[in-house]
Amino acid sequence: MKTLKPRTSSRPSAQEALRIASVQAPSLPPTRIEPEDRPTTLNLRLRSSTVLALTVQAKAEGLTQKQLVCRALAASGIAVAPADLEDRTPRRRF
């Protein structure tokens, strides 16, 4: 079994890193990176009658189930990303 090589130098603390950065580039403000708003999964356990009602309503409105749920969330005042209101169902190629 291979063993990992030990680190040759230790990492600076947060305060030390800020001090080094201020010495190297004193005129630049600290940078804050905004986290990416990436897709993630939400699983819900619902009764089959609720899922059937959701399916029927979505089909009647020409929407996906996700679109119907996201529109209802937006209507109740929850901030919903515009991409979550779109139909992003992959289309088949023929």
Distance between the termini: 51 Å
The run of helices and strands is: HHH
Residue fraction in strands: under 5%
Total E-strand runs: 0
Classify the oligomer.
single chain
- Write down the overall mean pLDDT: 88
Tell me the overall shape.
elongated
- Indicate the structural class: mainly alpha
User: Segments where pLDDT lies below 50 for 5+ residues?
Assistant: none
Largest sheet: none
Radius of gyration: 25 Å
Number of helices: 3
Q: What percentage of residues falls in helices of 4 or more residues?
A: 25-40%
Overview of this structure, please?
The protein is mostly helical and 94 residues long. It has a domain at 46-82. The protein is 38% helix and 0% strand. α2 (48-61) crosses α3 (65-75). The chain is elongated and about 65 Å long. The model has no long low-confidence stretch (mean pLDDT 88).
Supply the key terms.
0% strand; 94 residues; mainly alpha; elongated
Architecture blueprint of SSEs:
Elements: H1 14-24, H2 48-61, H3 65-75
Helix pairs in contact: 2-3
Quick structural summary:
The protein is mainly α and 94 residues long. It is 38% helix and 0% strand.
